[in-house]
Amino acid sequence: MSKKHILLLHTGGTISMKENADTGGVAPGGSNPIAEVMDLPGVDARYTIKEPFQIPSPHMTVENMIALKKEIEASDADGIVITHGTDTLEETAYFLHLVLDTSIPVVLTGAMRSSNEIGADGLPNLIAAVKTAASSDAEGKGVLVVMNETIHSAALVTKTNTGRLDSFKSRDGGPVGTVLKTGPHFFFTPFKTDAFSIQRFDYHIPILKAYAGMDAFLINQLTTCDGVVIEAMGQGNVPPEAAKALISLIQSGIPVVIVSRCGSGIVQPVYAYEGGGAVLKKAGALFADGLNGQKARLKLLAALSAGYRQNLNVIFS
Ligand SMILES: NC(=O)C[C@H](N)C(=O)O
């Protein structure tokens, strides 16, 4: 059998950084240490290696994500691995999950420790990601994230811890698989919706967080936005003054998407008191199931870009 052809796209992040022995600071050096690794032990594949950019992932933009989409669409590889900073890895993974129309494996990975730190996880993560991308078992599963020998769906995974190697978790749905010495082993196939055919992406969609005593001040500044995501309390509730301001945004035609600040669980229009989810829903707020704020924002952006402005209640149902 011929070797699988893997397109490796390096974008930066800690996986490509080194710790300065004198200052302890972690930053990109002159060259990307992970891009120099050509011979991955235990993997039988051939590679095309590209480095479209080398940035810390807090610098990642939707434009960068679109550039990755184009690289993937232009490639004839059997599988794609993207190395990425972990801070926004889930956002790039989820955006690609929403907009790519492909069944080949697309796997993102990164590192919690830079290449010369004790316990550096970049190389083992890269090997596990390539093993996954080279497996036909990974086809048709949407975009995957491989960290710490665990395979996650881009739709479910989030970074849960600032520094631990096991930071990436799929809190509600659970991981979709694990990477063994022999290759990936899947527990189930994650649900994947049709790809959004995006046109433009210059939308202003801020994310707000609800807090006890939240008033209208911040929300009233958002009258020129294309949409707002609010990390509401519990199942999707906000304080009364914040609710009034959100409802007036909705009435002026601005989509308002409700997620929960809990970090786990599904938002539901349960509570019918002032500011409760049932009242917000009745006023036209959109509920984003179990998505976190940063993913709900990308879903709204993709839906607006694909022309679903009048059907957002179908997309967020
Ligand atoms: N572990 C990491 O990659 C974090 C880094 N700040 C980044 O996202 O670029």
From TrEMBL:
Gene Ontology annotations of biological process type: asparagine metabolic process
Catalysed conversion reaction: L-asparagine + H2O = L-aspartate + NH4(+)
Location of the Asparaginase/glutaminase C-terminal domain: 205-309
Record keyword Cytoplasm present: no
SUPFAM superfamilies assigned: Glutaminase/Asparaginase
MF GO annotations: asparaginase activity
Name by which UniProt lists this protein: asparaginase
Organism, scientific name: Domibacillus iocasae
Organism taxonomic ancestry: Bacteria, Bacillati, Bacillota, Bacilli, Bacillales
